[in-house]
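Deliverable D5.2: sample structural annotation.
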Amino acid sequence: MIKIILVLLFYTSFVFAQAEYKYESKSETLPLWVKEMYSNNPDPGKIELLYNNHYTKNKFIKNKHTQYYKRWKRSLTREIIIPKNYNVQNKMNVDLPEWQCVGPFDFDRNASSTSYAAGAAHLYTVEQSISNTNILYSGGATCGLWKSEDKGLHWDPLFDTDLFINEVYSLEIDFSNPDIVYFSAGENLYRTLDGGITYEFLYQLSFIKDIVMHPNNNNILYICGEEELYILNVLENSLETIVSGDILELEFHTTASNIIYIVRRVNNKTEFLKSINNGDSFDIFDNGWPNPVSGDEQRRTEIAVSLDNPDRVVALATGSANGGSGLYGVYVSDNQGEDWEFRCCGDQPAGVPSINNQNLMGWDAEGEDDGGQYYYDLALAINPNNADNIHVGGVNHWVSNDGGYTFICPSKWSWAEDSENTKYVHADIHDIKYYDNDLWIACDGGIFYSNNQGDTIHQRMFGIAGTDFWGFGSGFSDGDVMIGGTYHNATLLKDNNTYLQGDTLEGTSEYGGWVSICGGDNYRGFVNFGNSRKVYLDEWGSGGGYTLSGNRTIPLEGFNMSVLSNASYTTGESSNLEFDPRCYNIIYIGSGDILYKSYNNGYSSFPLYDFSEKVTSIEVGWDNPNIIYVATYDGYWSKKHIWRSEDSGQNFENITPSFPGILEDDWIPFDITISGQNANHIWIARCPNSLNYSSYENSKVYKSINGGEDWINVTGSGLSGENITNIEYHRGSDDGIYLGTRKNVYYKNNSMSEWLLFNNALPLSTYSTQLVPYYKQGRLKNGTNRSVWEVDFYETTSPSAQIAANKLTINCLNDTVQFVNHSAMTNNNPSWSWSFPGATPSSSTEENPQVIYNEEGSYDVYLTITDDFGEDSQTILNMINYTNDPLTMEGFGCDGSCQDGYINAVLIAEDSYGDGWNGNVLSVLVDGILLTQYTLTNGYNEELTICIPSDDNICVEFIMQEGGWPEEVSWEILSINDDIILSGESPFYDQLYDSCPIYGCTEPNAINYNSEANIDDESCCFGSFYTIIMEDNYGDGWNGNTLMIDNYEVELEEGSESTEIICLEGDETCFNIICDGGDWQSEVSWLIYNEQGDLIISGGAPYMGCFLEGCTDEIACNFNIEATNNDGSCEYPDEYGDCYNTSLEENLNSNYSKLVITDILGRKINNIKSHQIYLTTHKNGTTTKNIKF
């Protein structure tokens, strides 16, 4: 229930934009990408290019700027627009099924394989009621407002379906009534008077950083805003400004309530102000207070007070000075802030960190690293019963027991996996609060609690749905297996009821929870559709995936993938793992610009197609897996494309729609889904990575029923104000489509004229990261910024049959096939009828039968399924191919020895670090076909027998594909006599017999003819080669400008320089040059050199002109009026003025007699002047050039 139905908001901005200041933004030594990011109007596309270019040349080291970049990029993808007069009641479709949250609500910290930085929810603040200490309220960064009535053991959401709020940055509980709470969301101030049953909107101010109630008058509130300090008289409903400026903090003297302390930021420093008259006036006290000199900065300070020493004020100041950054200093005043003493750390503000000059803001538990995120995570509290007990929060939790002179870190932010550690607090602390002996901490991982000054710290967040998923996957056959990369909290994994949730130290935990695995900010998550015990993620530490143990005390077992899918903070830039619907070990992976294919669950992969653009969304046809669709991403502001293949990925054609709405904002990325019955039915959703667009409103979703040859705009009017994030087809339906957006979920099928809002009980402003159908239970799962939600399908549909297996090719050493039911059907009285002609058994009614084949050949497979809602069948002809070809058996025969034409060899693999090859993969190809592929999964070394061809006329290639830490990798191939056949490191390429194709130009008349080439690579040039050097003085590419030379079009996509070589044919007509079409043209320059290295021409943008090498001397016989550059080819007349050394008698030949004389421009002339060049056209049609002396 709410009191105000119309939420008068136009635009919801993000806490990030106001709460985190820029770091050392005036420094001249910042990398170019950082300077651009900290500019007044940062261009995300330009910064993305600069960032990528910087880290291709420099080693990536996590620091305050890279963390700021991550949060800034995320904020762009999470922005939403809320129209004025938005009617909440009209936007909640209460007649539809209700969404339910399934977690994560917490994390199992003591499980095996837990992350070193385990967490589950991102919280900004936590407050405990003074009048009822069991009641708490907490504000989240992505999940709104929460309440607990049992001292944090369980939490419930407040107003999640009433208010469009994600971040609650500050709140205050009435000291006499725990039902009265004031809370902020961005610039907006709200209040509840009944413990969260109803709310009322009070004021829109500047961004609210703190709310503090007068300790003796619960009708008076002080509100710290980004522009002003306000005083609110609730009884009189009056609001007035008492101090101008960016107010960071406010504290009352603990015994004299007329004394108020505030901290104000002014440019690059902070000020301490005190009032002794309840805020009627304030004075600055700066004796000993931080005072940065020119070039330094000190932009954020927290203050705290204690009842144990009422006149003491502690200040935690951050910034940069004296060659170091992070902690500026801990300052203490024992006379109400009139004088300040610098107590920690070292003997000066900031400085280079060391054991004697600790930086409490960095990542190191000893305080010896520089930086940190001190304008993002910062918290301070003093024990009310012991003023010398001070708690500081940054990346780590620090404690002083001597009044701030020295500090220790009880537990580093990355020590979560130590099960004996009872002091763990997740990284990035935003709030620390003391209430008598109760200590509460809110951070990027959740809420933590101690009742003994931090000696033992409990998790107290159970129930808070605040996991911000960047990627999400769920099992097809087991929907209770879920996994996703998250913001701040590593990868969250649920395996049915394997893991605990709740306060394990308190004994209130229960099964059914999630575990945080790997570490850092991870992106994606996938589950194998045929084997839900295998999950995939982006973290190299696992090798690419895990096999689930089903036991929280047994570690997950990692498995290697040769390539990992593209992953990014930016919407539309990541790739999915796409499985062949017939085989759960055949995977398509978008890594970089290349579409890879794997036949063995990613263990080995080969490049299928290079798009020269980053691969993002991938879809494979259900009824025809030869049809593949791919979306590509060529940079933030670059054009995005859709591609189609009809030959299993060997060739692709561009099928991007050309509607005006798409062309106008062609930088918007695509997501793809296809019909489960017809691979020619395709839908694309345009998913903006920011809100900078003009034509998107009527150009969001398109459909094609002929494989992309023609498109229909199906946006309609039902998606007004929405920004789509993903699209998913409902198999078995009448073309039912689910759309996830930055706020909601929608549905539409062929019988519906408009998109239907499908959000009953789903929190408002729920960012849908990925929708995943779970057909067995008829549920739709939604990985979001508020954990995972699920709901009954909009409609019940007929089943849709799909046959699948663990492999499609078998042999005598591998003759058993595990079939799986990949059908879209419910668990309501299901049945399966399989038929396997030629196999044993030849039929089955099991859901997932196993059969054996005994002879070589091709075999058909049949399946009929039924459930309470219908029946469906599928036949796949020649699905199983039984062959003993050596290339399908890695050269081995049925008896385990090498087949004829192959010899035994021993592969010795070594890793100097002892952790396996970390994605480095050795491949052996025979005539271009993969024979075998190997990687060292773990350990220092391994030996295994392999078979290699013995015929030296066969092309045998050894390729080591580079992965992580290639410098650790070495290997050698030994003969049975221990002779070294081949050895190498990573990366590596060599031939075994020098019998492989040699590609090159095979045309003898071409200037680049290669006499050794035996296969023409279409590189022949019958003109001249030219080298084009493209430069950008800013280093972010040409921003859409292109250089067109004759029939060639080139551009500098990113970075500061690139080189292209082109072949231009012809020597008579000038080659046209145009450079134009993009932004920031003053940064663009280019140079063209000929084969001799001579500069032919240069320019910038815009440019229009031409060039041609030839004879430029007008008196030469071969003068070319078109030529712009003299190439030294001029030929001159002989002493008789004859250009071609022809005699007079020859010219008298009747066939050679003159017909007409013209000048070089073709104009007829009668009188020839001395030294004039003239052309003579003869009766036989020839033309000669002459000069008169």
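Annotation notes: Helices lie at 15-19, 32-37, 44-57, 64-78, 660-664, 1144-1147. Confidence is low (pLDDT under 50) at residues 1-18, 1142-1154.
The annotation will be released with the project's public dataset once the embargo ends.
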